[in-house]
């Protein structure tokens, strides 16, 4: 867990800790929407079977696309912040070797 002193000094970013929370919140929201969409399609089946089947199919397709999009966005943020961390470590190594050579 991140210490409060690290948050005040801006040495460590908290966004990489928040991205998994965003991801799982979006996954749960997508699953709930998929369940409601599927149930509405099931309730439409007795009145018009074609529209009910289409609603169910479109709900499943939209849920799959939404899950893929959420995953891509979460990975983009994590890769961006990991790249930043790696560059910070490289800078520390370079500064450390320059100080020892001087």
What does this structure look like?
It contains three helices and no strands. It is mainly α and about 100 residues long. It has one domain. The longest helix has about 55 residues. The model has no long low-confidence stretch (mean pLDDT about 85).
Poorly predicted sequence stretches spanning 5 or more consecutive residues: none
Largest sheet: none
Q: What's the average pLDDT?
A: 86
Q: What's the domain count?
A: 1
Question: How do the SSEs run, as a string of H and E?
Answer: HHH
Approximate shape: rod-shaped
**Strand percentage, roughly?**
under 5%
- Estimate the helix proportion, in percent: over 70%
Q: Radius of gyration in whole Å, from Cα?
A: 23 Å
Count of distinct strands:
0
Write the layout of secondary structure elements.
Layout: H1 4-9, H2 15-44, H3 49-101
Can you tag this structure with a few keywords?
102 residues
Short description:
By secondary structure, the protein is mainly α. It has helices spanning 4-9, 15-44, 49-101.
